[in-house]
Amino acid sequence: MEEIKRLLLEEKAALLADIREKTGKQNKTHSDIGDAIDSSVEEQERELELLLQDREQARLKGIENALQRMESDDFGYCEECGEDISKKRLLAVPLTRMCINCQSTEERSRLAQNVFSRADYTSQVLSDE
Ligand SMILES: [Zn+2]
Questions:
Q1: Which residues contact 18 (CB under 8 A, 6 or more apart)?
Q2: Nearest to 12 by CA among 60, 72, 55, 69
Q3: pLDDT at residue 85, rounded to an integer
Q4: Mean pLDDT in the chain?
Q5: Cα of 77 to ligand 1 centre, how many Å?
């Protein structure tokens, strides 16, 4: 488990550094820009940046959450069936909350749902004609 914790801490540090670097760059860009750059381009870039930041923040939150669960000894169990998640899986995807069995069951049912809604849609289109 220590191995996974180290992995998470490393990723957290990397993410924090990344976010900090971006925020710093963003501020710098702003003071340098003036009126020279088309504001709509600037706007788009800022939106993209914010979107990326959102994703990074979400990931950071996930890591912190996992670390917290590790502290309270609640880490590494499947949320669906309560079984231990294999260490190999945790090393590959430390933020996962499901064991491989439940994950694949869920993916299968999601896939089935997609197929079903597609079939539904097709039949609707056909009945319209
Ligand atoms: Zn499970």
A1: 56
A2: 60
A3: 95
A4: 84
A5: 8
Where do runs of H (alpha helix) occur along 1-129? 2-33, 39-71, 87-92, 100-128
pLDDT digits (tens, 9 = 90+) for 15-59: 999 888 877 776 665 555 555 557 788 888 888 888 888 888 999
pLDDT at 27: 62
Q: Distance, CA 99 to ligand 1 centroid (Å)?
A: 4
Model-level pTM?
A: 0.65
CA of 16 from ligand 1 middle (Å) equals 31
Structural domain harbouring 106:
77-129
Query: Are 17 and 28 in the same domain?
Result: yes
Q: Which residues surround ligand 1, an ion (CB under 5 A)?
A: 78, 80-81, 99, 102
- Residues 43 and 16 reside in one and the same domain: yes
